[in-house]
Amino acid sequence: MKRRLSTILFGVVFIAGLSLLLYPTVSDYWNSFHQSRAIASYVDAVDNTDEQKLDEMRKAAQAYNEKLLSKQDRYEMSDQDKAEYESLLDVSGTGVMGYVEIPSINVSLPIYHGTDNTILQIGVGHIEGTSLPVGGASTHCAVSGHRGLTSSKLFTDIDQMTEGDTFKLYVLGETLTYEVDQIRIVLPDELNDLKIEEGQDYCTLITCTPYGVNSHRLLIRGHRIANDAQGLIVEDVKQVQPLHEAIVLGILFLVLYIIICKILSKTILYRFR
């Protein structure tokens, strides 16, 4: 009896340990699949919207950015300001205003309005009070994401980016390419590096640092450059990749689980004979 209980206990502990070991990987692939689905839904919404409507949405976002230039405290929003903000660039009705691609660290993530924690668990958020991501002179968009989550990679690896790297924003069917020209570490309340500079077209990626401590903020700023010819083709491939990887990993995990259960069943039956 003791040997039977030991065998069962070993099996339970083994499966539990294996599940804990695989959880970060499985969860990351699962979330990558949903992030790709969110991007695909956004792309479909853009494709199914006529160009005149898209142009109107771009102009509304540009007008909003122009108003920010004269706003004294652009990070403080009234209920009316917030309602206006959340209505802009929301072509899919899901709160996604576009998506960001960072080729050097193999990241592609939907960009949502705002930086509520529920948003930052599933994607990256546009920082309220910064320019909307439609580009143009005298704009500075800022996008924030978590790093170090066990459930999703998100911005975990952006500390590996260096000056000269590029990243892209895809918004309303247009591609905006930025080249990293400044990397800074600041305190959470230091906002000077997010200021809008006259004539400049900037976008800054933001995450917490140091890893696991999160006492400061890592700011990776890029200035707008001309698009390369391959951006959209690369992105189309990346949208499919997480689904394939998640399916393969899920099948392997299921097969392993079935094998372990069969071994335990045979062992238990043998003990009872």
Automatic annotation (TrEMBL):
<keyword id="KW-0812">Transmembrane</keyword>
<keyword id="KW-1133">Transmembrane helix</keyword>
<dbReference type="InterPro" id="IPR023365">
    <property type="entry name" value="Sortase_dom-sf"/>
</dbReference>
<dbReference type="GO" id="GO:0016787">
    <property type="term" value="F:hydrolase activity"/>
</dbReference>
<feature type="active site" description="Proton donor/acceptor">
    <location>
        <position position="146"/>
    </location>
</feature>
<feature type="transmembrane region" description="Helical">
    <location>
        <begin position="246"/>
        <end position="265"/>
    </location>
</feature>
<dbReference type="InterPro" id="IPR005754">
    <property type="entry name" value="Sortase"/>
</dbReference>
<keyword id="KW-0472">Membrane</keyword>
<feature type="active site" description="Acyl-thioester intermediate">
    <location>
        <position position="208"/>
    </location>
</feature>
<keyword id="KW-0378">Hydrolase</keyword>
<dbReference type="Pfam" id="PF04203">
    <property type="entry name" value="Sortase"/>
</dbReference>
<dbReference type="InterPro" id="IPR042002">
    <property type="entry name" value="Sortase_C"/>
</dbReference>
<protein>
    <submittedName>
        <fullName>Sortase family protein</fullName>
    </submittedName>
</protein>
